[in-house]
Amino acid sequence: MAATADPLQRGFAAPDFSLPGIDGRSYTLADVRGPKGTLVMFICNHCPYVQAVADRIKRDTDELRALGVHAVAISSNDVSAYPEDSFDNMKLFAARHGFGFPYLYDESQDVAKAYGAVCTPDFFGFNTDLKLQYRGQLDASRKQAAAPDVRRDLFEAMKQIAATSIGPDEQYPSIGCSIKWKEAA
C-alpha cells in the first residue's frame, strides 16, 4: 500500500505528454484538456483499490465532463512484471467499466515520474491554466468501495475548481497500490 504523502504543490504545472491510447490514437495534454479543468489519473487494471472504485471513477468523470472538466487515465505499471496491466487488458478493463475518457499507456514510465505519481489510483486535478489544485482521494474507499453516500472528495474538488479555478484547502491523500516501477537496467 502506498499513499500520496507529498503535500499539495498548488500551482505545479501539468507536464505535457504524448502517449498511445487504447483506441489506437495518440494523445497529448492539449488533446485531453478541459475548458474548466483537467483531471489526470494514474490507474491500472490489477490494483484492488482501483477495482473497488472503477465504476465511481466512471460516474464522477461523466458528471465532471458536463461541468467542463475532462479526464484522462494513464497506466504506468511494468507490464512484464504485472501482465494483468498489459495494453490488451487495459482495453478490456476500460470496456468492462464503460470508461468515457482516454486510457493511455506510459510504457517508459516517464510521465508518471514527471507528475510524481506514486500509487494507483493517484489523482491530479488541474484548473483551466493547467496548474495543480487537487491531489487527493476519490473518496473514503480503500480495497472495498465505501458506502454509497460517502463524500465524493474528488468530484467536489473538481467541481469547485471548475467554478473558481482554486481547489479546496482540505485534501486527503489517495491510498492504493504503489506504481510498479521497472527495475533499473
TrEMBL record:
Boundaries of every Thioredoxin domain copy: 8-160
Identify this protein by name: Peroxiredoxin
On the tree of life, the source organism's domain of life is Bacteria
Per the database entry, which stretches of residues form a coiled coil?
A: none
Under CDD domains, the record lists: PRX_like1 (cd02969)
Membrane-crossing residues?
A: none
> What one GO molecular function would you report for this record?
oxidoreductase activity
